[in-house]
Each structure stands twice: as structure tokens, then as C-alpha cells.
Amino acid sequence: MAKGLRGQQPSTNTSPTRRLSSLSKGKKKGEELDYSAPPGHSPIHATRSASRRLDRGRRPPLRRRVGKMIGVGKAKQYANVLDKPLSRGRQEVSLSAFAFLFSELVQYNQTQVDNIAELERRLEDAGYAVGARVLELLCHREKGNRRETRLLGILSFIHSTVWKVLFGKVADSLEKGTEHEDEYMISEKELLVNRFISVPKDMGAFNCGAFVAGIVRGVLENAGFPAVVTAHFVPIEGQQRPRTTILIKFAEEVLQREARFG
Amino acid sequence: MPPLTGPKSGDALFGSVERVNAELFTLTYGAIVRQLLTDLEEVEEVNKQLDQMGYNIGTRLVDEFLAKSNVSRCVDFKETADVIAKLGFKMFLGVTATVTNWDAEGTSCSFVLEDNPLVDFVELPDTCQGLQYCNVLSGVIRGALEMVSMKTEVTWVRDMLRGDDAYEMRVKLTKQVPEEYPYKDDD
Amino acid sequence: MALAAIYSLFIINKSGGLIYYKDYGSAGRTDTNDSLRLASLWHSMHAISQQLSPTPGCEGIDLLQAHNFDLHCFQSLTGTKFFAVCETGAQNIETLLKVIYELYTDFVLKNPFYEMEMPIRCELFDLNLAQVIQKDRVTLLGR
């Protein structure tokens, strides 16, 4: 299940986060899984090899089968994160829990910057890390280990699959820029991350959607579509609140490759 | 508008609030931890910052809990702990905690979590063995309780990321600040 | 005749500082300084009422009735007070204040640009509050 995917990866991308092969789906207990690659989507870069993990005294030895786990009470314990069946993505937390966490992410980053451009960049970086992992997770779970290789395919994957999983709905619109061939826009009347946020007037056009722009860039870049992605408020006639548009400007190489594909 | 009612059950509460996919939450938390590791470098500093961030969240989140759960003032710390375990964890994270290991004075107890949405996908690498990955949760408890006049110390005693069989945090009530009245300069 | 059940709304922090004030047509009597002073006085009176209580556990004044207005006050367990000056006999104000408390937890406390205990300047809080008050007025009209 893992080998074919590797072959699909564009040679330009050597990011350590691209390890689709390492995800263990664990659909059925006891299913044989390939543990040869390190975990790619641990949020803190767990990048050791399985053999080194075996050396560590503290943990029980690596189990080769998902079905075998060391259980105490109801709590399940796995020798390592790859033994754990991949979640189906049906678990939920309250929107509030996310909103408070996101608010704290923004507040923390405000203390780390001198200006708004830097704040945007840092939120985008945080989002990028999420996007890179979301790509791995969803290609594996939702797409049967296949990844989009064409521009419109990956855009529609973001607009529908990624949006649905992360924000519970398909994005309101996906459009091609009218002035520039390399620009695309994903728009949302009310971005989930902005639901409770009022940006003070003195921060100008700053949009916390920079985090979502980062997610989009993380997905695109790790799928081999480098792009500059930014978030903008766009006023809508007759509405008190502007919508947010995520503007995607693809790198030249992406468009050239598309042209070659025909 | 419906009349004011008594406290809801944990399940009813979680069912009544708007929810999102836990993966968005988990991955966003992962992104925060990663940023802190990059910014602060020292694992100990990251632990402190996570606790501080949790505290900040707690001081804000407590009002939402009070507003939406309809709980009234708790009579003592024991009741407070039960409310947090059964309603608080459920309302925000969709999981329940068990309250155990009370001391004789009834001022310290443990919250045991079997499910913890923060840690999906996580494994501590060798360089981060000292990381208290879930410190944000203990911070939230401390911050929230402080807003209702209870000073606490919250520490982790078991952590599945470190090979334990559950997540357990110890909550110790250190001081119950009495209500502050202006124009009262005695006691 | 004013349709508003509410003449004005105050939110004060746990130290008695006014963090939000909105006038809904109380004959334009209170300027900023007045409202700040009123908030602080109300905070003290509320505390005094707790001390006056003959039995322990008093939570302070919930309702103050005058011949031409009612003042309804809701205090959260964290010490933030929401109070509204209303028409005499205005109904369901407790519920309305609780709804406003919920709006506060959503659009103020979850806003990363809001600093705790400071004056509330959150566009979304204003918008949602206006809607709730509007709805309340429509309900009244339909009566």
C-alpha cells in the first residue's frame, strides 16, 4: 500500500513531512502494516527509525500487529503511535475548545512579533504545519492513498475534501482569477477561525485567516504545487461583515508543468 | 426564550454546543507546540509556556462553561471537582474524566483521563522526553478555578506519552480566596 | 412611545470598572463620565447589599424597582456584572441578560484582541448584541 505512493511524489519535494507510507490505517485489527518508515505526522517531528525506537528501555517492545496492544482498563496503550489505528476523523471537540486554543495561538504570536506582516507570517507558518499533515492524513484516509497531480484536482480537493474535514463544510466558492492566469481564489462568507474574532481598526486589513492560508499552502506545497497563499477580507454588498478570500498564486513551475500535461 | 433550568448532563451539554472535527483541534495544538519548541528551544521553557497558555485559556473559558452549563455555585471543592470532571471536560473536549485519589482533607484529588484529544498522532521524540505535552490542560484547570476564587496547583502524575497507562493530573487546592467586598476592611 | 424594553445596558468587570455601556434611548442623560461613575457606584451598592443580608450566601441585588424604571442585574460567578435599566415591569430580562452573558463569552472572551478586564471594543459583540436587542423589541411589538 505504501510503495506505489512514493513513486507518485514529485522529485522536487524532499520535505520530511511527506511520508504518506508511514500512516497506519488499521481498518481491521490484526491487519499487517508497514512500519518501516518513521511517523510523518506527529506534530513534533518524531523522526526516528523503528529500530532505534526498539532500543529505548522505557517503552515496551514494538508490536508488529495492530491487534496486539497492552491494555489497562479502558485506556489503550500502544507501543508507538503507528500501532494505533488511524482515527476515522469522526471524533469531535467543541468549537469553543478550538476557538479558545486558536485565540491563544494568535495572542502568543502577537507577543513574538513587531509588526502585522510578521504576525501574518507566523500564523501562516503554524497553518502550514497543519496543512502538511492534513494532506498526508486525507490522501490516505479519504483518497485511498492517491494524491491529486493536476492543478484543478488539487484545488478542488482543498475546496471540498480538506474544507469539509477541517471546517465541516465545503468552501463557499472556488474561482479562477480574472486578471492573472496563475491566481485562484477560495472564498468563505465566514471563515471558521474568524467566527468570534473582531480585528481592531488599528490593525488595518489583518486577517487571522492567515492561518488558513497557511493550511492551504501546506497542502499545496507538499503535494508538489508551490504557491504564495494569502488571506483577504473582501466586502460584500449589503452585508455588514466582509467575506474572506484565500488568494492562491501558483509558482511559475506549476503552470509550466500543467501546460506540458496539456 | 426557555426559562432558566438546572445543570445539564455532560452528554446533553456536549450535544448542545457547536462542534468541530477533533483533528483540527489536535493538529492546531501540535502546531502550537512545534512553534514553542522552535521559539523557546528549552523543553522546560516550553512546558512553562504551555501551562501559561492553558492558564490564559482557563481564565476566559470558565465564563463560557458557567454560562452554558447552568451550574450554580458549588458548595465545596469536592463538588467543583466533580463538575469539572463530568461537565467541564465533556463540554469542551467531548470526554469525561474520573475523579479519584482524594486526600483525607478533601483538598487534593486526581483527574484521570482515558481519552485525550490533544495527543492523537503524537509521539515524543528523544529530544523532547521532558516535554509535558498536555500542560495546557492543567493550565486551563488552574486558570478556570482561579477565576472562581480557588487557587490550585496542578501537576501531571501519569502521562501515556511517557509510557503510563492513563493521563492523570493532580489538583491541589492551596487557597480558597474569600469573596472580596469593597468597604470591608476587617477580617 | 419608546418600543424599547431596555433603556441602557452596562457591563462592569469584577473590580467595578465599566467595560461596556450602551444607551437605547434613555433621553440621552448619561455621558461617559456619568456612566463610569454609575457603574462604580452600582458595584459598591451591590456589595453593600450582600453585607446587609441577614443570612449568609447573599448574591447581591438582582432587581431594583423605581417608580419609572426597573434595574435588573446579573452577576456571573466570576464577578462580571451585566445590568440593564428597563421599563417598569419589563419581562424576561434575566433571560436576556444571560443571553448577553453568552454573547460576551463568545464574541469578547474568544477574541484574541480583547484584553481581559478592559473596555469591550469588539465589532462582532456589538452586531450580535444589536440583533438580540432587536429581536427582543420585535417580540414586544408582537405582544
Plain-language structure description:
The complex is a heterotrimer of chains A (262), B (187) and C (143). Chain A is an alpha+beta fold. Chain A has helices at 3-8, 50-55, 95-110, 116-141, 151-167, 210-222, 252-261, and strands at residues 70-72, 75-77, 92-94, 173-176, 183-188, 227-234, 243-250. In chain A, helix 4 (116-141) packs across helix 6 (210-222). The longest helix of chain A is centred in the middle third of the chain and has 26 residues, at 116-141. In chain B, a hairpin with an 8-residue loop joins strand 4 and strand 5. Helix content of chain B is 44%, strand content 17%. Chain B has 187 residues and is of the alpha+beta class. Chain C has three helices and five strands; from the N terminus they run ββαβββαα. In chain C, a hairpin with a 4-residue loop joins strand 3 and strand 4. Chain C is globular, with a radius of gyration of 15 Å. Chain C starts with 5 loop residues before the first strand and ends with a helix. Classes of the chains: A alpha+beta (262), B alpha+beta (187), C alpha+beta (143). Chains A and B meet through strand 3, helix 3, helix 4 and helix 5 of A and strand 1, helix 2, helix 3 and helix 4 of B. Strand 3 (92-94) of chain A pairs antiparallel with strand 1 (19-21) of chain B.
What is the helix content of chain A? 25-40%
Could you say which structural class the secondary elements and strand pairing of chain A correspond to? alpha+beta
Strand content of chain A: 5-15%
Task: Indicate the CATH class of chain B.
Answer: Alpha Beta
Top-tier CATH class of the largest domain in chain A: Alpha Beta
What portion of residues of chain B is helical? 40-55%
